[in-house]
Design brief:
With about 625 residues, this protein is an alpha+beta fold. The chain has three domains: about 140 residues, Immunoglobulins (Immunoglobulin-like, Sandwich); about 250 residues, no CATH class; about 210 residues, no CATH class. It contains 16 helices and 32 strands. The strands form eleven sheets. Strands 3-10-9-5-7 form a five-stranded mixed beta sheet, with no helix packed on it. Strands 22, 23, 26, 31 and 32 form a five-stranded antiparallel beta sheet that branches. It has a four-stranded antiparallel beta sheet with strand order 2-4-8-6, with no helix packed on it. The longest helix is centred in the last third of the chain and has 18 residues. The protein starts with a strand and ends with a strand.
Length: about 625
């Protein structure tokens, strides 16, 4: 059966009238009170669990308040019938005047269809001595959304990273050495990469929890779509349901691991087409094709023709692994909820519609730099084009967040990964400046093969910081200042390069920018600097259009002018980059309050993790001084 995005319901509590068995009747929301008497009150006497996944457990708490002036005694709460159960009862006993307590009910449907029950709250409230709370839920057959590519259970077992470590870890550094000084074996560089951390990132899990909660009300377990790239071993081995990630095994959380990538084949090739029940439409949206083991033995694919090898697996040369199309499988994301027409991340499209493909520059050229060394502990042959598996980008903060979320990860991994990202950022752009005494002109050139910045848009931004100084070296004014204590950017008077997607014409949501990345259907701003050789028509035709800025075809730079203060003599100009913003972190914290889909507790921890790891301090990409 083809793997689809599961449709599931959301936990929902409806406001309803009290339906007490005595006094007041079902139509009176406010029970009568008496001086010195208890007054039992609930905001609703009906709990709706919506449509949930069969076999999954959803819980919700009912708050009982004593609005009276006397002590309330709750003598008991009757147990509802299956598939409902009381998982926590803090109310049986006494509740002080003005106090409250909670009862938590769990719903675990083992069969499809609608389910109803009730629990009876017995108390000494004269008006509501026996209050019936209705419980409603359903578990329906799953409606499916198409997701082509290799389906769960069709690729066989995916080997864990320990299998690869034995031969591809601890490899001697060879002749060329590695810039950051660690061994250049594929495992050694991968383990400190964001690929290895893809399923341990608390920001990722916090956002998945938010979107799972939101989309469950629309009948879609949207997190499954995300898990396909971030947790491929667990996904391919049929552990991605429920989409909260609760069924994953520890080894699944090693992220984008060796065996998945090195068993991938070009989905458009003859071999790829033969391995799928439905053709993959293009290189995007996790539509990868993974070959199964042959006669119980894996065939690992890579860029080399290996003629003499007696290891535990076979090998095959794959040109596909040297192409950007390989990377586009997961680094080109559109929104399946809107029939794949709305941009989420367009890094592959940005590269494809630039001058870099014609020049022969692939993603691997920059993100897997070549060194001289060995690929395995067999130390044969010595190669001068070993690709480092560090996959470095611009994320200087996330490695520290991962280390805080997963204490088992050595702190040195975070330090190494962040330092590599900083090095990448320092080569990603060039700053130039000039002044005629009254106007300061700054030029920012994008040296990367995609928009700058690119990828995940929520909270990610780059901006120009300008500090004007007088002849004594005293700062006269600052534009684009950032307060590291409050994590606040002052954007007035400077340029902030970012993408602001949002919602438009969606019931229940304002027409405005939004952090709901899986719901967003409109781009309100995207002034990110395009790559060399881009064309506006090419970008627009592929959903990567520019909004709120004007760049001529081929223009990979932006020019910004500033008025020079009267007594300023020099200007220090810096280009800043930030992985995520305070506003986005606050969104994740707030949206995950009492979120039953936050099973990994990432949403509950993300704000504290952010505070304790430098609040995603902006990185400096470059600095110049201009005489005014």
């Amino acid at each position: 059966m083809k793997k689809m995005i599961l449709l599931a319901g959301v936990l929902a509590v409806a406001s309803a009238a009290l339906s007490g068995c005595s006094g007041g009747g079902g139509g009176d929301n406010t029970p009568p009170t008496s001086t010195g008497q208890p007054d039992l009150d609930v905001k609703a006497a009906r709990i709706e669990f919506g449509n949930v996944t069969q076999g999954a457990t959803t819980s919700n708490s009912l708050t009982i308040t004593n609005n009276g002036t006397g002590e309330l005694t709750i003598s008991g709460i009757s147990a509802p019938s299956s598939p409902f159960s009381i998982s926590s009862d803090q109310c049986t006993g006494t509740v002080a005047a003005g106090g409250n307590c909670t009862v938590t009910v769990a719903y675990t449907p083992s069969t499809t269809g609608s389910h109803t029950s009730a629990m009876i709250i017995s108390s000494d409230d004269a008006d509501y001595s026996s209050l019936s709370v209705d419980l409603l839920g359903s578990a329906g057959d799953l409606t499916l959304v198409n997701m082509p590519g290799t389906q769960p259970g069709k690729a066989g077992a995916i080997e864990g990273v320990a299998q690869c470590l034995s031969c591809h870890g601890g490899v001697d550094s060879g002749v060329g050495g590695v810039p950051d000084g660690i061994a250049e074996g594929p495992y050694d560089t991968w383990k400190t990469s964001m690929m290895s951390m893809a399923a341990k990132d608390p920001l990722y899990w916090a956002l998945v929890a938010v979107e799972n909660k939101l989309f469950a009300s629309k009948g879609v377990a949207i997190g499954d779509y995300c898990l396909r790239c971030h947790v491929p071993k667990g996904w391919l081995e049929e552990r991605s349901e429920p989409a909260t990630g609760s069924a994953f095994l520890p080894d699944d959380l090693n992220g984008v691991l060796c065996d998945v990538c090195h068993r991938m084949v070009d989905p458009t090739s003859t071999e790829g087409l033969a391995l799928t029940e439905e053709d993959v439409e293009t290189y995007r949206n996790a539509q990868y094709v993974v070959a199964s083991p042959v006669s119980g033995k894996d065939v690992k694919r890579g860029p080399y023709e290996v003629t003499t090898f007696n290891g535990k697996h076979d090998t095959a040369k794959s040109d596909f692994h040297l192409t950007s199309e390989f990377c586009g499988t997961c680094h080109e994301i559109t929104n399946p909820f809107y029939n794949n027409t709305v941009m989420v991340e367009k890094t592959y499209t940005e590269w494809k519609n630039s001058s870099y493909p014609a020049e022969g520059t692939q993603c691997q050229t920059c993100h897997m730099p070549r060194v001289t060394g060995y690929a395995s502990v067999f130390l044969n042959p010595l190669r001068d084009d070993i690709g480092l598996h560090n996959f470095s980008g611009g994320n200087t903060w996330a490695p520290y967040a991962v280390a805080a979320f997963d204490p088992s990860m050595p702190a040195s991994y975070a330090t190494t990964s962040s330092a590599r990202a900083q090095s990448m950022l320092e080569t990603a752009a060039t700053l130039e400046g000039s002044s005629d005494g009254t106007t300061l002109t700054i030029k920012v050139t994008n040296n990367s093969g995609h928009k700058l910045p690119t990828g995940f848009t929520e909270g990610r931004r780059m901006w120009i910081n300008v500090k004007f100084y007088d002849t004594s070296g005293v700062m006269v004014s600052e534009l684009g200042g950032y307060d590291e204590t409050t994590a606040t950017l002052s954007s007035a008077g400077t340029t902030v390069y970012e993408a602001n997607p949002g919602t438009k014409d969606i019931d229940g949501f304002a027409d405005e920018p939004s952090f709901h990345f899986a719901l967003n259907n409109h781009m309100y701003k995207d002034n990110r600097i395009p790559p060399k050789g881009f064309t506006n028509s090419g970008f627009e035709a592929n959903g990567a259009h520019i909004v709120g800025a004007t760049y001529a075809d081929g223009q990979n730079f932006d020019t910004v002018t500033y008025t020079v203060p009267a007594n300023a003599k020099t200007a220090e100009v810096s280009l800043k980059y930030q992985t995520t913003s305070k506003e986005f972190i606050e969104f994740l914290r707030d949206e995950n309050l009492n979120n039953p889909y936050d099973v990994k507790n990432a949403g509950a921890q993300i704000y504290t993790i952010w505070e304790n790891t430098g609040k995603a301090t902006p990185a400096t990409m470059g600095t110049i001084t201009v005489n005014l």
